[in-house]
Amino acid sequence: xxxxxxxxxxxxxxxxxxxxxxxxxxxxxxxxxxxxxxxxxxxxxxxxxxxxxxxxxxxxxxxxxxxxxxxxxxxxxxxxxxxxxxxxxxxxxxxxxxxxxxxxxxxxxxxxxxxxxxxxxxxxxxxxxxxxxxxxxx
Length: 138
Known about the structure:
By secondary structure, the chain is of the alpha+beta class. Helices cover 20% and strands 20% of the residues.
């Protein structure tokens, strides 16, 4: 980020990750609570901000925007949401969370996601392209 809080690169809501990830866990019933929804970033952050990033590994996130083409004229669009996909490594649990998000939350979301990205980057660092020991094998 620049000093004025302008992000470097695309805005989080402009990023379209390849493929998709399904909420919850294929092997569990919805009643098992492996997908939790929050009414706001603040509510999500209160529950997840201080969780251990090794035990609660974030492997993907998606800033979801409703497509106006999917709604009738005059129909109210649902809010944008942030979906976060987790592996609770010690227990081998796949789960997800989703919170209603406002674009004004982007600086805080970006800071939190960047911190979480360090954990998964450290896991892959020994073989990641551009790092010592990593790169293409040919």
